Amino acid sequence: MHNFRSSERNFVRKLSIFMLTVVSVLSLGLNAIGQTPTGSPTAPAIVGVIGEVKNLDAASNQIIVRADSGVLYTVNLSERTKYKRSAPGAKSLENATAITLADVGSGDRVWAYGRVSEQQKTVPAQMLVVMSKADLAKKQEQERAEWRRRGVSGIVASVNPSTQEITVSSRSLMGAAQAVIIPVTDKVMMRRYPPDTIPKYSDARPSKFAEVKVGDQLRALGEKTADGTHLTAEEVVFGTFKIAGGVVTAIDAATNQIKITELQTKKPLTIILKPESVLRRLPAGGGMFAGGMGGGPGTAGGAPAQGQGQGQAQQRPQGAGPGGPQGGGPGRGAGMNMADMLERLPTISINELKVGDTIIMSSLQGSDPTQLTAISLVAGIEPLLTMMAARQPTGGQAGRPQGVDLNGSFGGMFGGVGVP
Q1: CB 282 within 8 A of CB 383
Q2: Which of 243, 272, 277, 333 can bridge 374 by disulfide, Cβ–Cβ 3.0-4.6 Å?
Q3: Are residues 395 and 342 part of one domain?
């Protein structure tokens, strides 16, 4: 028995070394790891599959796991399979707890350790390392909250090579532009999203100050000054994104594609929806924005504040604290940027989209300008666009959503997949 336990501990330690390279990905529950050989003719067989549990059949001792690449693998279990639960963010398996198959559920992230058959798409699992869906969601929300509390997001307005400073601009619900200066030192972790993808935080590649350019969307985490004009960054993540908007002309739920007529160009555009794409809908009439757009704080219980019009709804998005989604007291929501507010709307499915909906969406620019892969999409946005058009300095765009500067107004709206 002593030898058996010693062998198991050694096995876990060896697995821990490998897990150092994958546990951070599992902890986010977001992106694929392609289980590919090293390329050497004598390379060992692939030693596992990482993905999400899609189906579990305890009677036949099989689990269907979908890797984030979309490939389905059948994980075959036996009486020799060991089950371990690891906490999100863990750096090894040393503190993993022993569980049973009964503790594994649909939506959990797992690493099925075993010799993979790529031809048959099967894995006879020696060990199943599990991070529960609930634990992952809790950790991810904590990390999102940290980025909301200590972060800034928006469009890169200027880059100053001589001072190594980036100025980021975003538009508040009041319509005013907000600018934050971010000095970049050697201590700042710089990361960039690759083009033509659904951006996954853990997939962002190491980058440097010289790669940031005007028009990029950027988020930074760090300490803000009291007046909010500067941020001492710890981490910066950015990419060249496109914000597009238009009216839905066709919906194909079978292929997860929608077609729109783009607002500015009036040209047709195909929007591709991936499993990671996040869809939301603005409440009818855009009422949740009325208080912020009008500049008057709402009051508790949904009653209108003094001076507010009777037609302004007083809804708040799910999870909103006092004074708006970020909490912090009356009127705070009015200073929040558009992107942050939209990211707090409840999610919907493609089946809840309708022909005639006006949508805005974010995408990483790809090779085909007639097709965009949606990262974050918001439907029913026309009332908000109309209000924004009326506030533009030109004054001549009232009631004309096509006149709104989408990139300038919704810069930073590329979240929704991972952190930030």
Answers
A1: yes
A2: 277
A3: yes
% of the chain surpassing 70 pLDDT: 67
The mean pLDDT of 267-287, rounded to a whole number, is: 85
Q: Any alpha helices (H) in 88-232, and if so which ranges?
A: 133-150
Q: Which pLDDT tens digit goes with each residue over 365-407?
A: 667 888 888 888 999 988 888 877 776 655 444 446 677 777 6
Q: Report the 10 Å Cβ neighbour count for 218.
A: 26
CB-based contacts of 321-325 (< 8 A; 24+ apart in sequence): 323/297, 323/298, 324/292
Q: Residue 182 in contact with residue 237, Cβ under 8 Å?
A: no
Helix (H, G, I), strand (E, B) or coil at 391: helix
H helical segments located in 74-185: 133-150
CA nearest neighbour of 273 among 146, 416, 375: 375
Q: Considering 224, 240, 256, which residue would you say is the last residue of a domain?
A: 240
Domain for residue 154, yes or no?
A: yes
Distance CA 62, CA 302 (A): 50
> Could you list the residue range(s) of the whole structural domain that residue 41 is in?
2-131
pTM of structure: 0.62
413 half-sphere exposure, CB direction, 13 A CA radius: 34
Name the DSSP letter for residue 91.
S
Cβ(182)–Cβ(158) below 8 Å? no
Contact 164, 209 (CB under 8 A): yes
